[in-house]
Amino acid sequence: MRNIRLYGQFLRVAILGKAQYKADFFVGIISVLVLNAVNLSLIGILVHNFNTLGNWNIWDLLFLYSFWMLSRGIYGVFFWHLSDLEEMIVGGTFDAYLIRPVSPFLQFIGKDISYTGVGDFLVGVLGFILAAAQIGIHWNMGQWAYFLICVLSGALIQVAINLIGASLCFWTTRSNAAMNIAERFTVLMQQYPVNIFGKYFQIFVTCFLPVAFINYYPSVVLLGKAAGEIKMWQYFAPFVAIVMLGIAAAVWTKGLKRYTGTGN
After folding, report:
1. Distance of CA 171 to the CA centre of its chain
2. Residue 108: is it exposed, middle or buried by C-beta count within 10 angstroms (0-12/13-18/19+)?
3. Nearest to 146 by CA among 44, 244, 217
4. What is the pLDDT of residue 43?
5. In this structure, what DSSP letter does residue 56 have?
6. Whole-number percent of the chain with pLDDT over 90
7. Fewest CB atoms within 10 Å of the CB: 67, 88, 139, 200?
8. Tens digit of pLDDT for each residue in 77-96?
């Protein structure tokens, strides 16, 4: 309970800091909206030329993309600064977290928020409303609950993947290159249905780097896109999120224990 209150206080300070730069906030939001408009235009051009991708039409793909934007927005607001860990370790500023009577992890995740995540979330909301209207979504309460849980699960999977990547710098000092590769791979995967790729690639994004659980498998379940009956493991996004968070927590804890500073 104490940690939750402290985290809330950290966020309050971060928000007040961001509020000092209102122009940056609006420029950031606009840039995110433009970037997502370009991405959606490229997907639209692709579908226009081929009619569908797999058995996904343009509105299905908008749903898929919006699903990702909703979870990415949540991740972006609260955890976008995970990549700052490398700079803090190289510069020696992370060491200040180790001498305070508060969890270093809590201090680190509470040090900043990102307004670009707000733009992503808005794109997700607008895209979902449009796609839902065109697809004709009529879900029951259970499906709505599953949708909301999976949006949160997708955000947590992204947190876990990036926390694992960031934690590598406890061993290597620098980890942003690996994080950038994972980020670009994730962005690519969230824009297209996994079933258009080969079998071994599908296994990789399901079992080893489980980004397919961020939006693809929940969308398969909710839109009825499974080839044949829906498999039980396609419902596993919340379970995958828990497992990935457990792995990320273990990597962070192990890395923090062996961290001795960079000598700065």
Report:
1. 24
2. buried
3. 217
4. 60
5. B
6. 29
7. 200
8. 889 889 889 888 988 888 88
